[in-house]
Design brief:
By secondary structure, this protein is an alpha+beta fold. The chain folds into two domains: 216 residues, Rhodopsin 7-helix transmembrane proteins (Rhopdopsin 7-helix transmembrane proteins, Up-down Bundle), CATH 1.20.1070.10; 153 residues, 2-Layer Sandwich (Alpha-Beta Plaits), CATH 3.30.70.270. 67% of the residues lie in helices and 8% in strands. The protein has twelve helices and five strands. It has a five-stranded mixed sheet, with helices on both faces. α1 packs parallel to α7 and α10 crosses α11. It is elongated and about 90 Å long.
């Protein structure tokens, strides 16, 4: 038992080092730091097991540390899969307090009773994470999630059986002895520690790739797609529309007197206006319309399967919605009132190469809206 426990101690310590080295790639890194904390506490617990000659000789503080570490690990899994709990400190304190109560409750009781209570606690910790991983569908590495979830559930099931077996033997039940049960349990935990480490590293890689993708496709200030991604994303829609002979709407709008906003209120207020547009725009278009920050204070949208009436409806809704968003931001102290001028074009495109032409037509309509008094909507050719 001692050599396996020390091996688990080393494995947990290596996992902590790996997570701390690569944690900076994971956005805010809270989930990975929580796992690193759990693995670090487990390492201390396994050290106590490794120094003991038998499982019954392990001092209670080391058992306590192992259970608390498992609790932190389970909480990290739940947080990765659900994003909850948002506030970690109260939950962490609750996990520690629960195990303190359990430790006090079983203090001085026979080893089999203590093992039963601690086995129940460990199984309860493993079950939620195992189920969440096993039923995960919205992930790239579904097979790895399934294997990891199955491993957590297998360890939970074995832990429950072990606790029940020890308690039944203590109560005098006529149950044959199971050789090497402690060894089997340690081997299962060692395998779980390895699989769990692999799973978290894969999750880290997937998050890092998603982070790089967001950086490459998203405008940092507004949260909308950037121009490069927008232009490449709408090409298939124009190609499909050309084959089907269906019209497409193209909209361009920009902030009226944006330079005046920057000169009068400062560039931070100008940035606040752009962020306000980024927050409001998705709700003003249809769910499958493509939008982006086209450049500076200029924004664009492509509306597949949109005739002139639909394009006019969306364009006017954008104009009115932005005016309303500016007033609400000013009332809440988050910005200043602003308006936008909107230009649009709508026709059956000749293909993806026709996007530049339709953008030029929408830009010409925007020019008409500007010269017509601003805070207005115009469509090319109408």
């Amino acid at each position: 038992m001692a050599s396996l426990s020390l091996a688990l101690c080393v494995l947990c310590a290596v996992t902590v080092a790996l997570l701390l080295v690569h944690g900076h790639l994971d956005g805010d890194g809270h989930d990975l730091r929580l796992l690193a904390l759990g693995k670090g506490v487990q390492a201390a617990g396994w050290l106590g097991f490794g120094l003991a000659t038998a499982a019954s000789d392990v001092m209670p503080p080391f058992r306590f540390l192992l259970l608390v570490g498992l609790g932190f690990e389970a909480l990290a899994i739940v947080r990765v899969r659900t994003g909850r709990p948002a506030k970690l400190l109260p939950v962490l304190a609750g996990v520690v307090a629960l195990h303190v109560l359990l430790a006090v409750a079983v203090a001085g009781r026979p080893f089999e009773v203590r093992a039963f209570v601690q086995s129940m606690a460990a199984a309860v910790l493993f079950l939620p994470g195992g189920v969440l991983l096993l039923v995960a569908r919205d992930v790239t590495s579904r097979r790895l999630h399934g294997v990891t979830g199955g491993a957590y559930l297998a360890v939970a099931a074995f832990t429950l059986l072990r606790g029940g077996y020890l308690l039944a033997r203590h109560e005098g039940a006529d149950i044959p002895a199971v050789p090497h049960m402690e060894m089997i349990g340690l081997l299962l935990l060692q395998a779980l520690a390895f699989i769990g480490c692999v799973w978290f590293v894969v999750v880290l890689r997937e998050r890092y790739e998603a982070h790089i993708h967001r950086l490459a496709t998203t405008d940092a200030l507004t949260g909308l797609h950037n121009r490069r991604h927008f232009l490449s994303a709408v090409e298939p829609a124009l190609a499909l529309a050309a084959r089907k002979g269906t019209p497409v709407g193209v909209i361009i709008f920009d902030v009226d007197h944006f330079k005046r906003v920057n000169d009068t209120h400062g560039h931070p207020m100008g940035d606040a206006v752009l962020r306000c547009i980024g927050a409001a725009l998705p709700a003003l278009v249809r769910g499958y319309d493509a939008t982006c920050r086209f450049g500076g204070e200029e924004f664009a949208a492509v509306l597949p399967d949109a005739d002139g009436a639909v394009t006019d409806l969306v364009g006017e809704r954008i104009r009115q919605g932005m005016e309303r968003a500016g007033l609400e931001a000013a009332e809440q102290g988050r910005g200043v009132p602003f308006t936008v001028s909107v230009g649009a074009a709508c026709r059956v495109p000749g293909g993806p190469q026709d996007l530049d032409g339709m953008l030029a037509e929408a830009d010409a309509a925007l020019y008409e809206a500007k010269h017509g008094g601003r805070n207005a909507y115009r469509r090319h050719g109408v």
